[in-house]
Design brief:
Oligomer: single chain
Shape: globular
CATH topology: Spore Coat Polysaccharide Biosynthesis Protein SpsA, Chain A
CATH architecture: Alpha-Beta Complex
Distance between the termini: 40 Å
Number of helices: 7
CATH superfamily: Spore Coat Polysaccharide Biosynthesis Protein SpsA, Chain A
Strand order of the largest sheet: 5-9-6-10
Largest sheet: 4 strands, mixed
Number of strands: 10
Helix content: 25-40%
Radius of gyration: 18 Å
Order of helices and strands: EEHEHEHEHEEEEHHEH
């Protein structure tokens, strides 16, 4: 977004973006704790600023992240309760995650060891080279768009990082676990579980919230 402040702190419906996810996860009875991984250079400042808003939840910890996405996840994993059997990794840029997806991913992770929310690809996908020449057209019936949360039995995710599978860059933790040879299951995601990556996305999210609020008001009046 080319902004100075972290995207997670951008206001959405009058609250920092990350609080939307925190509130949803905190509402799920099975969630025992939430570990926020914050931008390393501003972690202490952000923690102090958010303290009054996070205090009511009572289950939130915070730590500074690392240089790369997987470095940040590893730090969060190290700070999490060692008794936690299932770890869920969520991108707070997805503020519309709901309790159904959280439980769905957690149950699949508990049963199979690793799982993620995803949606079947709706459009034709092309694989291209550096010169933007099409190399192939994969069968989209085998392609899914990954979302978060992604869930793992704690032993599976710890082993993946301990085994050095997070050294190379990865776009998500499922990819790191895939490198161990462990199967990762896909569970149905939600089209509304969108990721905020641009100012247009943020504006669309505001509009979505207004529409939901108006719909609830209309249903209540009926």
């Amino acid at each position: 977004m080319r902004l100075r402040r972290p995207k997670a702190l951008l206001p959405l419906d009058g609250r920092p973006l990350l609080l939307h996810s925190v509130e949803t996860f905190a509402s799920v009875r099975e969630v025992g704790e939430i570990v926020l991984v914050l931008p390393p250079r501003r972690a202490a400042q952000i923690r102090r600023a958010l303290a009054p808003r996070l205090a009511p939840f009572g289950i939130v910890k915070a730590t500074a992240g690392g240089k790369r996405r997987q470095d940040s996840v590893r730090r969060g994993l190290e700070m999490s309760d060692p008794k936690a059997d299932v770890i869920l990794v969520h991108d707070c840029a997805r503020p519309f995650v709901d309790a159904r997806i959280i439980r769905r991913v957690a149950r699949a992770a508990y049963r199979h060891g690793a799982a993620l929310a995803a949606l079947p690809a709706r459009e034709t996908v092309k694989r291209v080279d550096a010169a933007r020449r099409v190399l192939e057209t994969p069968d989209r019936r085998t392609l899914w768009n990954a979302q978060t949360p992604q869930g793992f039995r704690r032993c599976v995710l710890v082993a993946a990082y301990a085994g050095g599978h997070g050294r190379a860059d990865a776009t998500d933790d499922a990819q790191i676990v895939e490198r161990t040879g462990k199967p990762v299951r896909v569970v149905p995601g939600d089209p509304a579980n969108v990721k905020i990556t641009s100012r247009e996305d943020l504006a669309a999210a505001e509009y979505m919230i207004r529409r939901r609020r108006a719909a609830r008001k209309t249903n209540h009046e009926r």
